[in-house]
Design a protein that fits this description.
- By secondary structure, the protein is of the alpha+beta class.
- It has 2 domains: 48-80; 88-190, ATPase, nucleotide binding domain (Nucleotidyltransferase, domain 5, 2-Layer Sandwich), CATH 3.30.420.40.
- It has 5 helices and 5 strands, in the order ααββββααβα.
- It has helices at 21-32, 46-80, 141-146, 148-157, 181-190, and strands at residues 88-96, 101-111, 114-117, 124-129, 167-172.
- Strands 1, 2, 3, 4 and 5 form a 5-stranded mixed sheet that branches.
- Strand 2 and strand 3 (114-117) form a beta hairpin.
- The chain is elongated, with a radius of gyration of 43 Å.
- The N and C termini lie far apart (116 Å).
- Residues 1-26 are annotated as: Disordered.
- Its EC number is 3.6.1.5.
- Keywords: Hydrolase, Membrane, Transmembrane, Transmembrane helix.
């Protein structure tokens, strides 16, 4: 039985076979091998990559120079800060206690990244004054005046060239914590 809707095969004449089999191969490969240039191909962007390489070189060298400059600045700022010519550093702690206020002046050196304190007669000194900061509850503005003697004591112990680099801490303890918060703030602001 024959189908009516079936397609009929067209018969095309076959091309004449060439006399030489190599000539068929040559004509086939030349005709079918046509190269398209891909815009993203590496061969097209060779000139672009040279421009990009020189730009990347410039950016890399610039970043290295900037990084070295920052490292040098930090190095000199870090190692110069807070030291005298012989490597000494100083710290001052004011202990504002309830019965009296004390100042402690510490001398130390940094050795291998670790502070080494000298608690001998020249490395640590202290002084005490009465009354303590909490006794200025009625007149908070005078609390700061009471610490002036302590600050003068500290200034005498620290070399003048290191005054701007010496850290001073006020530690208000004990009785001051028992006062009203507003009074505490007034006392600390006067200091």
């Amino acid at each position: 039985m024959r189908r009516l809707n079936a397609r009929h095969r067209r018969s095309e004449p076959e091309p004449d076979p060439p006399a030489d089999p190599d000539s068929k191969m040559d004509s086939f490969s030349i005709k079918s091998l046509q190269f398209k240039q891909n815009p993203n191909s590496r061969s097209n962007s060779f000139s672009k990559s040279l421009k990009q390489q020189s730009r990347y070189k410039f950016l890399t060298i610039s970043l290295i120079c900037i990084s070295l400059s920052v490292v040098c600045c930090l190095f000199f700022a870090f190692f110069r800060h807070g030291t005298s010519g012989d490597g000494r550093r100083f710290g001052i702690i004011i202990d504002g206690g309830s019965t009296g206020s004390r100042v402690h002046v510490f001398e130390y050196r940094i050795e291998g990244g670790v502070p080494r304190f000298d608690f001998g007669p020249h490395g640590h000194s202290s002084m005490r004054v009465n009354p303590g900061l909490s006794s200025y509850e009625e007149d908070p503005d005078r609390a700061g005046e009471s610490l002036m003697d302590l600050l003068q004591f500290g200034k005498k112990r620290v070399p003048k060239e290191l005054w701007g680099e010496t850290e001073i801490r006020l530690m208000a303890t004990a009785g001051l914590r028992l006062l009203n918060v507003k009074v505490q703030q007034s006392i600390l602001e006067s200091c």
